[in-house]
């Protein structure tokens, strides 16, 4: 049942900005930085969501996911995120790797389609072997105030992917004020989201630290009320190691150690992995690798 939205606290934007500023002043010592970068790498959903994606590109990205740098002995990424029609290719290429296959669905990225078509989209991805589903909410319905529609839609999708983890994309860049982000987060969690996710990565602004903090606080409040842990996935625009580390600091200081793993936190990214590899190479050898040694995705 949809939550009583009257009970949702109002967000103080200045207070959020001040907290984010404090997170960004934290520094990590060398050993801690290396461990944090490896942790960030293990939390990445390596992503390709382009109209020009081919089976060959998917197989190449799968190989990269499994072999980020044999010389540096790095962890693998958490998942590979693709369109539903590429799930079977990715699933086969990643056999026995431990890397999940995530699939966007529900008329990604716009969400502008009927519920029946969205359900078919999800069912197809599930039948192809997807381990995780990243769905988009109907932002138009949300902005009209039709919150019951959004709630029911998420619940209907979760009913199809019961065995798969459901990440609900809010597309926060289209929602407006932080109060709206909090409201959409509450609705998604109550409707059955296993993760809440900021963005599709297709519009700007995508993930931002203030928005992510509001979503993390929603997860925290839900956990304190119910004891149920919900995951978080900022996606879009997180392309360098420094920013990723700032997100991890915010995650740790907001939700604590139990969320510091890929079961409950992911980065939706395509270029972040490359930057982390370069930074870890520098930490080990005191010099940057040539970018010619890093694949262009």
Any overview of this molecule?
The chain has one domain (5-293): Aldolase class I (TIM Barrel, Alpha-Beta Barrel), CATH 3.20.20.70. The chain has an eight-stranded parallel sheet with strand order 7-6-5-4-3-2-1-8. The chain is globular. Helix content is 46%, strand content 11%. The protein is α/β, with parallel strands linked by helices and 297 residues long. It starts with 12 loop residues before the first helix and ends in a 12-residue tail after the last helix. The protein has eleven helices and eight strands.
Number of helical stretches of at least 4 residues: 11
CATH architecture type: Alpha-Beta Barrel
Q: What is the CATH domain class?
A: Alpha Beta
Residue share in helices? 40-55%
Concise structural overview:
The protein is an alpha/beta fold and about 300 residues long.
List the helices and strands and how they pair.
Elements: H1 13-23, H2 30-42, E1 44-47, H3 55-66, E2 79-82, H4 87-93, E3 100-105, H5 115-128, E4 132-136, H6 139-143, H7 147-160, E5 165-169, H8 178-191, E6 195-197, H9 209-226, E7 231-233, H10 241-255, E8 267-269, H11 272-285
């Amino acid at each position: 049942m949809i939550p009583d939205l009257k009970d949702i606290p109002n967000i103080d934007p200045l207070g959020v900005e001040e907290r984010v500023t404090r997170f960004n002043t934290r520094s990590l010592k060398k050993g801690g930085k290396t461990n944090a970068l490896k942790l960030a790498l293990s939390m990445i959903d390596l992503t390709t969501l382009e109209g020009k994606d081919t089976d060959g590109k998917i197989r190449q990205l799968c190989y990269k996911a499994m072999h980020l740098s044999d010389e540096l002995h790095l962890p693998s990424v958490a998942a590979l995120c693709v369109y539903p029609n590429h799930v079977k290719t990715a699933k086969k290429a990643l056999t026995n790797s431990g890397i999940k296959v995530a699939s966007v669905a529900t008329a990604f990225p716009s969400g502008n389609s009927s519920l029946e078509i969205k359900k078919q989209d999800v069912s197809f991805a599930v039948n192809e072997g997807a381990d995780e589903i990243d769905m988009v909410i109907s932002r138009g319905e949300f902005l009209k105030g039709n919150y019951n529609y959004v709630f029911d839609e998420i619940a209907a999708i979760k009913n199809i992917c019961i065995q798969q983890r459901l990440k609900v994309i809010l597309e926060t860049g289209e929602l407006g004020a932080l109060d709206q982000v909090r409201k959409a987060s509450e609705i998604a969690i109550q409707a059955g989201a296993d993760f809440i996710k900021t963005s599709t990565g297709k519009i700007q602004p995508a993930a931002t630290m203030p928005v992510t903090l509001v979503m993390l606080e929603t997860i925290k409040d839900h956990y304190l009320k119910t004891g149920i842990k919900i995951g978080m996935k900022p996606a879009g625009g997180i392309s360098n190691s420094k920013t990723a580390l700032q997100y991890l600091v915010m995650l740790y200081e907001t939700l604590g150690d139990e969320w510091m793993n890929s079961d409950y936190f992911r980065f939706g990214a395509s270029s972040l992995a490359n930057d982390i590899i370069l930074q870890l190479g520098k930490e080990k050898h005191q010099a940057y690798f040539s970018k010619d040694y890093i694949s262009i995705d």
